[in-house]
């Protein structure tokens, strides 16, 4: 950690007080330097996380609140394309080489289909499958990897573009802005609660093979945090759409799906032997590290409102 400044002595070296040529003051300065720099190294990632959040959240909130549905579609489309690219980079690290250009084109088509309405989605599914197979017919240079490359290409499109597309539909609802803010608050509050609860109280691993640092205590803290902020949302800006009972259930449901999304991305990164999906956000990683929870939580919110809340605007949208 401190290479280039000095080298700490080995366990058998006697360099502490009373050794010839080294004064106590100098040793005290070294100890102070080690302590100070160790603390700064420890807190440095947290400072990056906080700084990135402070810089990034206000513009995002302004775009959602003041922007039109089209502006929001542009934002989600950018996230889809960046997410697919990072997804394929993870697969590349695992020696699975999908077709990145094809995946980006198909991801854009999926986003356009969600923007135009549900009627185009079946066509996009057919195009995705057929275009992927046709593309690899012209690049059939390694039979032993063709199945993995085919599946990897389609997995990126359906996992990232298709599931993220539900955010476009949610924003298009009558109270779409409020629902988007609600979803972000529930998911990211749960994520923050998990981080601090796990850091302070975590003792029992949640899934040691997938993500050794995640704990059962952190998972419970995430559930509690999501439910609390969901109830607060009911009493503040969503009382007419989400009842108190639904707010409690939704807080639990959304956080469970969010944790599944988080663990799923961790599983992919573990399989590829990498820590972060990218370095787009200092202290946070790549775009997938920020939206992995939303990818699974967005469809959960949409279909909860559709099936259990009798939201007529949703029913009209997908018919």
Our count of helices gives 10
What is the averaged pLDDT score? 82
Secondary structure: number of strands: 2
* Shape field: globular
N-to-C SSE string, H for helix and E for strand: HHHHHHEEHHHH
What are the low-pLDDT stretches, counting only 5+ consecutive residues below 50?
1-23, 33-42
Radius of gyration: 24 Å
How many structural domains can be distinguished in the coordinates? 2
Helix content: over 70%
Termini separation:
59 Å
SSE class: mainly alpha
Strand order of the largest sheet: 1-2
What does this structure look like?
With 319 residues, the chain is mostly helical. It folds into two domains: 68-165; 173-319, no CATH class. It is built from ten helices and two strands, in the order ααααααββαααα. The chain has a two-stranded antiparallel ribbon with strand order 1-2. The longest helix has 43 residues, at 24-66. It starts with 23 loop residues before the first helix and ends with a helix. Residues 1-23 and 33-42 have low confidence and may be disordered.
């Amino acid at each position: 950690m401190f290479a280039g400044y000095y080298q700490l002595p080995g366990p058998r070296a006697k360099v502490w007080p009373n050794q010839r040529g080294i004064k106590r003051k100098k040793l005290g300065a070294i100890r102070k330097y080690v302590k100070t720099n160790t603390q700064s190294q420890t807190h440095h990632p947290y400072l990056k996380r906080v700084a990135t959040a402070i810089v990034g959240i206000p513009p995002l909130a302004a775009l959602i609140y003041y922007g039109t549905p089209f502006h929001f579609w542009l934002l989600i489309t950018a996230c889809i394309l960046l997410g697919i690219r990072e997804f394929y980079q993870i697969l590349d690290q695992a020696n699975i080489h999908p077709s990145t250009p094809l995946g980006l084109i198909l991801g854009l088509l999926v986003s356009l289909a969600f923007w135009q309405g549900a009627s185009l989605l079946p066509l996009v599914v057919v195009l995705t499958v057929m275009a992927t197979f046709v593309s690899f017919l012209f690049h059939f240079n390694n039979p032993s990897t063709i199945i993995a490359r085919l599946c990897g290409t389609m997995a990126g499109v359906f996992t990232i573009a298709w599931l993220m597309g539900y955010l476009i539909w949610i924003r298009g609802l009558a109270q779409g802005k409020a629902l988007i803010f609600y979803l972000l608050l529930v998911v990211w509050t749960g994520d923050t609660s998990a981080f601090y609860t796990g850091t302070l109280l975590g003792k029992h691993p949640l899934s040691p093979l997938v993500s050794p640092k995640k704990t059962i205590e952190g998972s419970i803290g995430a559930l509690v945090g999501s439910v609390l902020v969901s109830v607060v949302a009911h009493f503040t800006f969503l009382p007419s759409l989400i009842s108190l009972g639904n707010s409690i259930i939704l807080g639990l449901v959304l956080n469970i799906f969010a944790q599944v999304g988080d663990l799923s991305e961790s599983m992919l990164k573990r399989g590829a032997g990498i820590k972060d999906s990218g370095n787009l956000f200092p202290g946070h990683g790549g775009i997938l590290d920020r939206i992995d929870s939303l990818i699974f939580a967005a469809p959960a919110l949409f279909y909860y409102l559709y099936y259990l809340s009798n939201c007529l605007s949703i029913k009209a949208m997908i018919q």
